[in-house]
């Protein structure tokens, strides 16, 4: 059985903790089978759920001097992943652990020891796919992290699949990406055409592949600043305060702390008692806080390759007319945390700065009263919020140069009216917009990595297109430093069996139904109804399915004309109209008449169940199926004993008493392939009209005979408890022959 879904597991090993992400997407072969024209031009559709993620603390980097403990530390994440990924697909599911800034700060020896131990542990204790330790378990560069984030942002916003909805002017349709964690910060964007040509050697060549196998190339600039994350920046800031005040005072005034708050240099709150080490005393002066954090940007560092942004790092000029950035992680938390603004569609500098000043000007005691009853950790966030806000404002506006919306005039973007309205709905027409989730999916660089991996599983459209999916230097062909996606476009091979088309035919679910109905509005209703009926057929229990069939059949079947009879059907005849179709679909009985025969006492020994089976139920239900075209008519005998009657729930009875069987002459009709009962002198015309149901009619008429006629041998009395039927005056009884 071919597998419908592909799965991927990735561990984001950050500086403060490790987070598990699990993603799922359709196998390309199956996705192609039902893909719309729009799907074919799109990247694979990845999905995830909040319950598939899990974060643990501390970070992997804390195990640098005790490498042997890192495996058991990760086991709880592995156990969680195994609860998500189906057991029979674990071996085909790749697992990645990619460490970021926290690990980058460790000596190379410790980095190598940790990655080797992690790979060895995962291979010993899991069955996830891990063919290459260097590719799957690694400390990634900041530039790589930024590029993955850029992929994730544009993937979720639709910049790849629907460029017509994201025209920012000058032929530009992608978004820039800003990320800030605890230890580092990243930027990634596609420069405008002029800057891209001028700084071609500074760009990364990114190759993706859409579902139809077409290549998609992008040229992106990405850079990182190690030590520019909020935690590392805070450490540098406190160190500068220490140097400024030296040891002249026991308390060091800190304008970035709320007024009246006292903490250690590490940020732990202290009481009113004396401390051996210097303490920080909050003054709540946010304007001064901005001034003291500005030097940390490193704007005074020499720039060897103009232009530069932070710390002398070269970055091509940013055209904010077309380069619209989204910011994640701390950009989101610092603008939407304790300062509110959770429902803001766009970032407004003037509004945000006013909120920060109002909050940071409060006494710490007042802030604490407002925090009563909130969840654990909010007090820590409130304590650090003012420094983080000052750092974010300086990085955004003084470092990167994002225009101050609400204060500074912005250039008029050359955007079409339709694209502008669409962007307004998303809130992404401004130079900067902090985000956390887009369409319910977290914007994380891990998603970008998995999108790249999933795109690598799609076979190329042309055999001549052998360029792999991945990224590297902006040169022709396959660059020497090209980093492959790590995936293959060969189909999954389960126990040596390739995925077959038969496995795919009915391998769809409710998500497919909705997707297909949405993608084709003109025929969506008809397709939805048809697929839903098939879905109900294959997945409803048999008893419920039969009840549904009965209701449908009672409405759809055509009433028989009085006196028309059943007759032998012509060649090729079958269940008529929609009723017949429903019978085929739901497994019901054919549209012909069905009769019930209640066996009398003494008759049970005339039949024996095939295979020696026994049953206390003396009621056998017969249908016209015993005389259907599918019956075995090749035998020369009048009736095969094993084919005389069919029962529901019982094994097929066989005739045991040869003294009382009916002599039915078997004639093969050249058209209908039916038994011709017309030659039997004992069969009345009314019986003939029932298409060969003489046996059952005979049985009914026997049950209607009065007791004195039964005593004469013309019939048998029904057993106690069995209802007798009143004889119809229009039907003549069948006599024993």
Automatic annotation (TrEMBL):
InterPro entries: GDA1_CD39_NTPase
The keyword Membrane appears for this protein: yes
Matching PROSITE patterns: GDA1_CD39_NTPASE
Biological processes, Gene Ontology terms: CTP metabolic process; UDP catabolic process
Listed Low complexity bias regions: 628-645
Compositional bias of kind Basic residues: 661-672
Region (Disordered): 557-595, 625-645, 661-683, 715-737
Protein name: Golgi apyrase
Binding, ATP: 182-186
Transmembrane parts of this sequence: 522-539
Annotated signal sequence range: none
Family: Belongs to the GDA1/CD39 NTPase family.
Residues at the active site: 145
Gene Ontology molecular-function annotations: ATP binding; GDP phosphatase activity; ribonucleoside triphosphate phosphatase activity; UDP phosphatase activity
Domain of life: Eukaryota
Gly residues bias locations: 563-577
GO cellular component entries: Golgi apparatus; membrane
Keywords: ATP-binding, Hydrolase, Membrane, Nucleotide-binding, Transmembrane, Transmembrane helix
């Amino acid at each position: 059985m071919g597998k419908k879904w592909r799965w991927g597991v990735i561990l984001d090993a950050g500086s403060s903790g490790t987070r598990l992400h699990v993603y799922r997407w359709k196998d390309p072969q199956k996705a192609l089978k039902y893909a719309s024209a729009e799907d074919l031009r799109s990247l694979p559709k990845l999905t995830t759920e909040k319950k598939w993620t899990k974060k643990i603390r501390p970070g992997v980097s804390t195990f640098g001097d005790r490498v042997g403990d890192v495996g058991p530390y990760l086991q709880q994440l592995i156990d969680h992943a195994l609860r998500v990924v189906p057991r029979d697909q674990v071996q085909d599911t790749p697992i990645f652990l990619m460490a970021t800034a926290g690990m980058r700060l460790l000596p190379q020896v410790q980095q190598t020891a940790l990655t080797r131990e992690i790979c060895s542990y995962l291979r010993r204790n899991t069955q996830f796919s891990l063919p290459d330790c260097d590719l799957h378990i690694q400390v990634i560069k900041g530039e790589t992290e930024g590029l993955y984030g850029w992929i994730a942002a544009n993937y979720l916003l639709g910049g790849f699949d629907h460029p017509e909805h994201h025209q920012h002017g000058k032929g530009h349709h992608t978004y820039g990406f800003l990320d800030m964690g605890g230890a580092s910060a990243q930027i990634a964007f596609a420069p405008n055409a002029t800057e891209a040509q001028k700084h071609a050697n500074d760009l990364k060549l990114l190759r993706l592949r859409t579902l139809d196998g077409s290549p998609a190339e992008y040229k992106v600039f990405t850079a990182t600043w190690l030590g520019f994350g909020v935690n590392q920046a805070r450490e540098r800031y406190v160190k500068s305060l220490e140097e400024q005040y030296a040891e002249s005072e026991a308390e060091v005034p800190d304008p970035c702390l709320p007024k009246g708050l006292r903490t250690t240099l590490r940020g732990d709150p202290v009481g009113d008692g004396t401390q051996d080490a210097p303490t920080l005393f909050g003054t709540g002066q946010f304007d001064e806080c901005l001034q003291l954090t500005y030097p940390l940007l490193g704007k005074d560092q020499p720039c060897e390759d103009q232009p530069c942004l932070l710390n002398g790092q070269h970055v091509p000029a940013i055209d904010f007319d077309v380069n619209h950035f989204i910011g994640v992680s701390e950009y989101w938390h610092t603008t939407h945390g304790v300062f509110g603004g959770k429902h803001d569609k766009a970032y407004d500098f003037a509004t945000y700065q006013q909120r920060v000043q109002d909050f940071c000007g409060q006494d710490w005691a007042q802030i604490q009263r407002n925090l009563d009853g909130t969840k654990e950790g909010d007090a820590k966030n409130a304590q650090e919020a003012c420094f983080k806000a000052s750092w974010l404002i300086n990085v955004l506006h003084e470092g990167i140069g994002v225009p101050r919306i609400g204060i500074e005039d912005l250039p008029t973007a050359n955007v079409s009216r339709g694209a502008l309205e669409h962007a307004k709905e998303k809130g992404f027409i401004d130079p900067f917009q902090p985000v956390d989730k887009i369409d319910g999916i977290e914007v994380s660089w891990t998603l970008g990595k998995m999108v790249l991996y999933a795109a690598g599983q799609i076979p190329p459209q042309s055999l001549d297109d052998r360029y792999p999916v991945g990224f590297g230097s902006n040169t022709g062909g396959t660059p020497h430093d090209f980093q492959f996606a790590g995936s293959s476009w060969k189909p999954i091979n389960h126990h040596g069996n390739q995925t077959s088309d038969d496995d795919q035919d009915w391998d769809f679910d409710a998500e497919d139904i909705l997707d297909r109905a949405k993608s084709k509005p003109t025929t969506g209703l008809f397709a939805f109804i048809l697929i839903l009926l098939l879905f109900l057929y294959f997945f409803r229990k048999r008893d419920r399915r039969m009840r549904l069939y009965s209701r449908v059949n009672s409405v759809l079947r055509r009433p028989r004309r009085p006196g028309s009879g059943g007759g032998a059907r012509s060649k090729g005849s079958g269940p008529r109209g929609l009723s017949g179709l429903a019978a085929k679909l739901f497994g019901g009985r054919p549209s012909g008449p069905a009769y019930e025969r209640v066996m009398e006492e003494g008759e049970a020994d005339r039949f024996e169940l095939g295979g020696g089976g026994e049953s206390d139920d003396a009621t056998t239900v017969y249908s016209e199926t015993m005389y259907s075209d599918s019956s075995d008519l090749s035998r020369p005998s009048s009736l095969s004993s094993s084919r005389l009657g069919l029962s529901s729930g019982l094994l097929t009875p066989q005739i045991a008493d040869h003294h009382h069987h009916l002599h039915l002459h078997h004639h093969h009709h050249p058209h209908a392939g039916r038994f011709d009962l017309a030659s039997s002198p004992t069969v009345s015309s009314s019986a003939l009209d029932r298409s060969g149901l003489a046996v059952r009619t005979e049985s009914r008429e026997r049950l209607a005979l009065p007791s004195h006629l039964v005593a004469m041998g013309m019939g048998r009395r029904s057993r106690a408890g069995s209802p007798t039927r009143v004889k119809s005056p229009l039907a003549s009884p069948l006599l024993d022959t």
